[in-house]
């Protein structure tokens, strides 16, 4: 209590000073006066009395000093004094301050922006209660060893019922369908789930009402978005029915606004209301599974237990489950695992950029420090301790860092906004990106760290200033001793090394991006409009009616002005969604179904190949005559022909497709390979069937003569002219879809490219600054050299060698470092290697060239030194 | 003056409080004189010891300083004991007596012969 009171009083003492000082002086003067008078009274002569009184006082000024220290808080006062001095210093040198602050702001801003992404995606938990207990489960082909795969419903049921480590488990699959909302027909994505889907995630749909009583009638939960769009948020909608395709669901609840799982889904219902058959289909691997671990169960335990269960299923159902293992990863990992590497690499690159920025500012400070040696020497000679000098210099650094931090935070806000705008669609939970408390702490730490890096070096150097030397010659030093530049040289070398690493990283990613963009798609993406149509379930009259409807849509839109032709497919290329089917040739026998070869599978309209520009290589494409009544036919791609019909003509041969129960198809033609999955994946074997023989929801593709989106409204009008109730889904140009599939690669290569460019720029500025300064300091020496007959060429070489030498050493070190770290990129590069000599060479050349350019300016200044001027300067 | 000792840490505050209690409000010089007199001129207080100590007591709220007029009509800063100061004095007296008693016992103990 007393201590607190004293502390408060001292805090006050920091503020009111001059008045208190006068008071103390008066008090002490009175004290002295009284002492003198007492001394006189005791018989001393006035002069003697005064001398004794002064002696006894112990010195007035030191007393005041001690008193002041007690009045305020000395350490704080020292810091405040340093701060005031630093601020004055900054204001007196605005150019220097602006450059330093901008450089730091750049480094800190970039790091903060990237950190906020890392924080949102990698650090913050998923938005579910006890999200760390959520685990994704999938089947796993032990032979092919691929990643997590979809699960058949019976396998899921067996997992759920046998597991002791999981508290709950739920399965879902996403289906696209049309909803007849009260406002308009709408095409949406829905999740067909197992029971306990929401319970497993720990999410309670809002507004559940009294509809939990399960009387066997289909019910569904709708998304907050759909609730707003179709019902205007009216609670009266709860309990009402909504038509989905030909089924009807009672709305049992609304999901919370922040709930987006699985992403993009607006409608949740249970699979048993939709396709009860799939509940018993052990061959239909269509479901994704998530489980919630019991409180004290570990992922390891769960993995061991699930492997035992999967083994048991393998033995019980060899036909469907042979070699089917099980794979578990945390839901967090499954959600963000794909972008972790990208983000960590970007974070590392941002950190390198910050280091480059720091060393630039450190060099600035060092250069300034040299000119301030005299000032520091004066301070030291009148009694400042080395600690005080270092404190003062570090305070100056901290002021710069604080300004840089504030400016950096502003830059980060802008950066986050830009990141949100340009973030690729594949970036999960990017919606939650924001500058939050953790980000602020990060800025603070980054600023502190930068201060430590760039302010300590100069401070340490300066505090070791030799007083005699400094006072004798500082500011007019005739030549800079070679050793004095070493710290600065090291900084320049380090900058170039880091910039080299950044440039090489960016170069590798950019080259991969170019390779990806040049990857042969197998079709012509230009002038293609795509229109999603879902829902044969919508049509009275069943699949046959849908087939007729689709044929009419293709016909009508194909005849629209500005349109060349139209077709349709179940899934577009490049988007990475493909159905797959195992197949075999008649007479072949395999030990089990699972051992049979697999192929991608699409159902397309006969016109599809022509519209997409997929070349026909052999035989014929599908035709309008291949309809319901005609023999079942198929078209295969080149990859399948090459792999399974090597040395044969596949046309006319028969294959058995598992997908519709082992039906036989006659191959009528071979078409070119198309990149159906991601652009970096080589085309897989593929089988095409006709939509006329097997009607299915499809995406219409329209080849236009003009910009594809300009035809969008005409196409929609044409579709609605046929049936006003048909929901029309996403309309997008094929080029846009291709471009989106490159979102993540583009995002990371652009960002890394930006960082590398900035890093190279800063490094170039760095070597320029150091060399300019050195030339300025050596004016005298250069003058002597010129006077003694050194030619321009010689001087030029002398100066250039200094700067370029540093850059070259840095670049060389950078090349070595890049060899070591570029392996981190190995999973991200495409069509090149992580030690691509062209990229390494280009980066080295680019940096060396910019170093030469940066050095030429001060070098030309050096050869124009006028010896007379330079020597008179002395 | 060489024979005069400086004040032991921590004791000055107690002495100053005690002085103010017995003498009533007093200026800095008065406090110093009184302490020196009581000590039989064994103590010598310089300004650097006295005024910071007074300031500390004031900051802690044990004494309060006010400008007043001295006997010979000069403006002087008078210090007086506050209620909190009186309590503090009692407490420190007790502590001091305890310490003194303990020290006394230690010093009284005959030297052990080994």
What does this protein look like?
Chain A has 874 residues and is an alpha+beta fold. Helices cover 54% and strands 16% of the residues of chain A. Chain A contains 28 helices and 21 strands. A six-stranded mixed barrel of chain A has the order 3-4-8-5-7-6. Chain A has a six-stranded mixed barrel with strand order 13-14-19-16-18-17. In chain A, β17 (654-657) and β18 form a beta hairpin. The longest helix of chain A has 41 residues, at 331-371. Chain A is elongated, with a radius of gyration of 38 Å. The model of chain A is unreliable at 474-483 (pLDDT under 50). Chain B is an alpha+beta fold. Chain B contains four helices and three strands. In chain B, a hairpin with a 5-residue loop joins β2 (63-69) and β3. In chain B, α1 (11-23) packs across α2 and α1 (11-23) crosses α4 (83-108). Chain A binds chain B through residues 2-3, 5-6, 9-10, 13, 23-24, 26-28, 30-31, 33-35, 38, 55-60, 62-63, 65-67, 69-71, and chain B through 1, 27-29, 32-33, 44, 46-49, 51-52, 55-56, 58-62, 70, 74-77, 88.
What's this entry about, in short?
The complex is a heterodimer of chains A (874) and B (114). Chain A has 874 residues and is α+β, with helices and mostly antiparallel strands.
* H/I helix tally of chain B: 4
Give the proportion of residues in helices of chain A: 40-55%
Number of helices of chain A: 28
> In angstroms, what is the radius of gyration of chain B?
17 Å
Largest sheet data of chain B: 3 strands, antiparallel
Strand order of the largest sheet of chain B: 1-3-2
Give the class of chain B from helix and strand content and strand pairing. alpha+beta
State mean pLDDT of chain B (0 to 100 scale): 83
| Unreliable stretches covering 5 or more consecutive residues of chain B | none
Secondary structure: number of strands of chain A: 21
Oligomer: heterodimer
Overall geometric form of chain B: globular
What is the beta-strand fraction of chain A? 15-25%
Share of residues in helices of chain B = 55-70%
Form type of chain A: elongated
What value does the average pLDDT of chain A take? 84
Q: Distance between termini of chain B?
A: 42 Å
How many extended strands of chain B?
3
For the sheet with most strands of chain A, the description reads: 6 strands, mixed, barrel
Which two chains have the most extensive interface, and how many residues on each?
Answer: A-B, 32 and 26 residues
């Amino acid at each position: 209590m007393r201590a607190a009171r004293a502390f408060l009083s001292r805090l006050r003492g920091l503020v009111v000073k001059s008045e208190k000082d006068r008071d103390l002086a008066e008090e002490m003067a009175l004290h002295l006066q009284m002492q003198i008078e007492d001394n006189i009274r005791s018989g001393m002569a006035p002069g003697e009395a005064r001398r004794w009184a002064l002696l006894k006082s112990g010195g007035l000024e030191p007393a005041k000093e001690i008193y002041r220290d007690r009045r305020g808080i000395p350490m704080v006062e020292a810091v405040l004094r340093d701060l005031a001095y630093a601020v004055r210093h900054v204001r007196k040198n605005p150019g220097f301050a602006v450059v330093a602050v901008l450089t730091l702001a750049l480094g800190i801003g970039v790091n903060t922006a990237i950190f906020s992404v890392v924080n949102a995606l990698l650090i913050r938990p998923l938005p579910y209660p006890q999200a760390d207990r959520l685990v994704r489960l999938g089947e796993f082909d032990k032979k092919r060893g691929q990643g997590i795969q979809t699960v058949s419903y019976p396998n899921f049921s067996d997992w759920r019922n046998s597991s002791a480590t999981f508290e709950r488990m739920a399965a879902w699959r996403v289906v696209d369908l049309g909803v007849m909302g009260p406002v308009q027909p709408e095409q949406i994505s829905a999740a067909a789930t197992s029971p306990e889907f929401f319970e497993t995630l720990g999410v309670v749909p809002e507004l559940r009402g009294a509809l939990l009583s399960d009387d066997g009638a289909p019910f569904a939960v709708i998304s907050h978005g759909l609730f707003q769009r179709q019902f205007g948020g009216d609670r009266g909608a709860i309990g009402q029915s909504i038509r989905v395709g030909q089924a009807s669901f009672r709305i049992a609840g609304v999901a919370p606004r922040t709930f987006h799982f699985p992403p993009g889904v607006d409608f949740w219902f249970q699979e048993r209301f939709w396709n009860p058959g799939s509940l018993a289909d052990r061959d239909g691997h269509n479901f994704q599974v998530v489980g919630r671990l019991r409180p004290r169960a570990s992922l390891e335990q769960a993995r061991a237990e699930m492997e035992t269960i999967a083994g048991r299923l393998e033995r019980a159902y060899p036909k469907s489950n042979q070699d089917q293992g099980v794979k578990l990863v945390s839901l967090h990992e499954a959600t963000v695992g794909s972008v972790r590497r990208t983000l960590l690499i970007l974070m590392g690159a941002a950190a390198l950029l910050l280091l480059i920025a720091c060393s630039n500012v450190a060099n600035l400070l060092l250069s300034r420090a040299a000119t301030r040696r005299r000032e520091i020497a004066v301070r030291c000679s009148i009694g400042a301790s080395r600690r005080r000098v270092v404190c003062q210099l570090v305070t100056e650094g901290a002021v710069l860092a604080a300004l840089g931090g504030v400016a950096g935070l502003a830059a980060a806000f802008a950066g986050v906004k830009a990141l949100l705008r340009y973030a690729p669609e594949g970036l999960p939970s990017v919606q939650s990106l924001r500058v939050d408390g953790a980000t602020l702490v990060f800025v603070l730490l980054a600023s502190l760290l930068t201060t430590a890096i760039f302010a300590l070096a100069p401070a340490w150097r300066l505090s070791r200033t030799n007083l005699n030397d400094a006072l004798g010659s500082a500011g007019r030093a005739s030549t800079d001793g070679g050793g004095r530049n070493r710290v600065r040289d090291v900084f320049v070398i380090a900058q170039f090394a880091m910039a080299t690493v950044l440039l090489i990283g960016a170069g590798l990613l950019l080259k991969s991006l170019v390779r990806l963009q040049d990857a042969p798609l197998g079709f012509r993406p230009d002038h293609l409009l795509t229109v999603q149509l879902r829902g044969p379930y919508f049509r009275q009259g069943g699949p046959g009616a849908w087939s007729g409807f689709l044929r009419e849509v293709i016909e009508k839109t194909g005849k629209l002005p500005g349109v060349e032709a139209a077709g349709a497919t179940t899934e577009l290329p490049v988007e990475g969604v493909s159905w797959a089917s195992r197949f075999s040739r008649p007479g072949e026998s395999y030990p089990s179904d699972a051992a049979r070869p697999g192929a991608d599978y699409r159902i397309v309209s006969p016109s599809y190949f022509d519209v997409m520009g997929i070349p026909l290589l052999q035989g014929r494409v599908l035709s309008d005559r291949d309809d319901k009544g005609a023999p079942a036919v198929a078209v295969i791609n080149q990859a399948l022909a090459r792999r399974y019909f090597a040395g044969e003509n596949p046309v006319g041969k028969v294959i058995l497709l598992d997908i519709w129960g082992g039906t036989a198809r006659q191959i009528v033609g071979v078409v070119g390979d198309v990149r159906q999955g991601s652009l970096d994946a080589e085309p897989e074997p593929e089988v095409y069937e006709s939509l006329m023989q097997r009607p299915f929801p499809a995406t219409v593709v329209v080849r236009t003569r003009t910009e594809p989106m300009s035809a969008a409204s005409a196409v929609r009008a044409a579709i609605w002219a046929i049936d006003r109730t048909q929901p029309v889904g996403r309309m997008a140009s094929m080029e846009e879809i291709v471009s989106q599939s490159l979102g993540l690669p583009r995002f990371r290569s652009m960002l890394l490219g930006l960082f590398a460019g900035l890093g190279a720029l800063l490094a170039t500025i760095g070597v320029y600054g150091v060399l300019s300064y050195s030339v300025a300091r050596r004016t005298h020496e250069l003058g002597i050299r010129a006077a003694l007959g050194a030619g321009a060429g010689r001087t030029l070489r002398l100066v250039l060698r200094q700067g370029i030498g540093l850059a070259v050493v840095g670049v060389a070190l950078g090349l070595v470092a890049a060899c070591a770290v570029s392996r981190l990129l190995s999973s991200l590069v495409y069509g090149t290697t992580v030690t691509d000599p062209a990229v390494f060479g280009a980066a080295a050349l680019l940096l060396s060239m910019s170093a030469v350019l940066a050095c030429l300016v001060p070098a030309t200044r050096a050869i124009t030194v006028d010896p007379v001027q330079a020597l008179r300067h002395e | 003056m060489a024979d005069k000792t400086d004040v032991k840490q921590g004791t000055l505050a107690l002495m100053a409080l005690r002085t103010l209690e017995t003498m009533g409000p007093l200026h800095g010089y008065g406090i110093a004189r009184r302490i020196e007199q009581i000590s039989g001129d064994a103590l010598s207080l310089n300004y650097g010891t006295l005024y910071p100590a007074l300031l500390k007591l004031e900051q802690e709220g044990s004494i309060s300083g006010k400008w007043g007029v001295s006997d010979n009509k000069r403006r002087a800063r008078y210090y007086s004991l506050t209620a909190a100061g009186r309590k503090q004095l009692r407490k420190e007296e007790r502590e001091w007596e305890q310490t003194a008693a303990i020290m006394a016992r230690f010093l009284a103990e005959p030297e052990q012969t080994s």
